[in-house]
Amino acid sequence: MILQIKNLNINYEVRNGWVSAVQNVNLSIKENETVGLVGESGCGKSTLGKSLLKILPKNARIDGEILFKGENIAPYNERQMRKIRGKNISMIFQDPMTSLNPIMKVKDLFLETIKAHYPKIPEDEAFKMSAKILEEVGIDPVRMNEYSFQFSGGMRQRVMIALSLVLKPDLVIADEPTTSLDVIVQAQIMEVLKKLKDEHNMSMILITHDLGVVAELADRIGVMYAGHLVELSTAEKIYYEPKHPYTQALLKSIPNTNIDDRELRYIPGDLPNLVKPPKGCRFANRCPYATEKCHNEVPPDFEVDGTRVKCWLYEKVKA
Ligand SMILES: Nc1ncnc2c1ncn2[C@@H]1O[C@H](COP(=O)(O)OP(=O)(O)OP(=O)(O)O)[C@@H](O)[C@H]1O
Fold first, then answer.
1. Residue 227: exposed, middle, or buried by beta-carbon count in 10 A (0-12, 13-18, 19+)?
2. What is the pLDDT of residues 88-106, one digit of tens each?
3. What are phi and psi for residue 33, nearest 5 degrees?
4. Strand 3-14 and strand 17-29: pairing?
5. Cα(7) to centroid(ligand 1), Å
6. Residues near ligand 1 with C-beta < 6 Å?
7. Which of 166, 144, 171 lies closest to 155 in space, CA to CA?
8. pTM passes above 0.90
9. What is the set of domains in the chain, with CATH numbers?
10. What single DSSP character describes residue 221?
């Protein structure tokens, strides 16, 4: 196992209390495995992703264990985390425009990243490493002399990917890597990620609100709702045998261009207030099958048919 997340709870302190952004999440990721984390905006996907690198804002409190290659990094301080970030675990952000320093040439961005971990590396060797990975993401290394603002959105995201992978991390967290791009460029970037993931033998957590985006890439998919990981299974099972009523609703909400099913495209109701989260299942107020028990008790994780599902409907179903 490259990563084991155990009983992870993340709360943000706000003026009127604490936002329960992630509650009791358990998730393991194997070597060379890609796990997609999906769910609508505000469900806690980014909070979970950022907690693995400890880049959460100051008002966040993390409880639980984050075992990276068996070692609990949850209590690590900033100095210890700096040794891991980029080299062992790295992150591809949503918007490369804000995450790539525009006043630095691309080659200096690489140099800075590489030198942070290998301060004595000769510059020509660092440039060789950078050129190789840039080629792999489809960018002519000559462009290292340019500034990131001189690149198109898709090309900038390729630079970002190359920068995240130059030190060959074991685990990459890609947080909505294609959201700001148009559909064609999105597909190209997903292709690049797919190719690199296989060639570099890395594990990946792919965070997205779009179930369609993870289809090609993810071995397993975790569905999040209001801070809970409500379903976890292989990509096939999530698509063809979704168990949790929220996953079912999410699948129906994927726009289908063949049929006019507009009424299926959204899930009625809102995410609950996470400062005062519901007592029971967090999806109960939007769930067509909710019973009194659902409103009153948080369901445990049930194992059904190789799928993990957090829903009382499966209480009596044999695994
Ligand atoms: N700095 C913060 N302070 C207080 N609450 C926060 C903070 N950041 C996020 N939250 C809250 O935590 C919850 C989870 O947010 P998070 O950004 O992780 O969700 P998400 O699924 O990644 O959504 P998005 O795709 O919109 O980023 C939300 O209720 C959000 O309002």
1. buried
2. 999 998 776 667 888 889 9
3. -100, 145
4. antiparallel
5. 19
6. 12, 14, 19, 21, 39, 41-47, 57, 59, 209, 274
7. 144
8. yes
9. 3-88+169-314 (3.40.50.300), 89-168 (no CATH)
10. E
